[in-house]
Amino acid sequence: MIIPRTIRRLQERRVHKNGPWAELFESYSGDEVVSLDCETTSLDVSKAEILSIGAVRIKGQKVKTSDRLDIRLKPPASLTGESIKVHKIRATDLSDGIELDEALDKLLAFIGNRPILGYYVNYDIRMIDKFLRPKYGFGLPNKSIELSHVYHDIIKWKHVGGDVDLRFDTIASKLDIPIIQRHTALGDAITVALMYVRLKHGQAPTSTH
């Protein structure tokens, strides 16, 4: 039986609300959002392995590029020629990578209970949960924000009628946002963060160092 995600989250919150990661399950009342991206060996969650994780915090109208997470993991056996064609990450590029358990600890500490933003963010969350749940007994409980939905709703409201092109490159172009190191986890996370700020605040986003 597949348990709906909302029910599973409630169950996990009940179990872990007094545990060492209790803060993750508290309602967030701040004004920060974390833009998250993962590079993986496949788009099939059941088969994919995580190669790298990138994240950056957004506070108000500012993308805090100095407040970021840039993790490379040890190369998995499933890193093949086909997957390398997509993300351009080779085993040699991951020679200084860390173990997955350490990466998950760093990720949880960085995100906390802040909302998670991403482009097709559900995929990234499912990938993290795939490895997080066996280790900790819970998946990411954070609220999620899908960039393409934010873009779609705003464009539809301003320009009624017609289909909205939700491709990553198209959204960046329409918002006049430079694509930073495409197909790198940190680059995509920063680009998504800049696009989100532009959409939410309607002016040129700024970054802080």
From TrEMBL:
Gene Ontology biological process: DNA metabolic process
Pfam families reported for this sequence: RNase_T
Sorted UniProt keywords: Exonuclease, Hydrolase, Nuclease
GO cellular component term, pick one: cytosol
Chain ranges of the Exonuclease domain: 32-205
One MF term in the entry's GO annotations: nucleic acid binding
Gene3D superfamilies: Ribonuclease H-like superfamily/Ribonuclease H
UniProt-listed SUPFAM superfamilies: Ribonuclease H-like
SMART domains for this protein: EXOIII (SM00479)
NCBIfam families: PRK09145.1 (NF006601)
The name this protein goes by in its record: DNA polymerase-3 subunit epsilon
Species of the source: Marinobacterium lutimaris
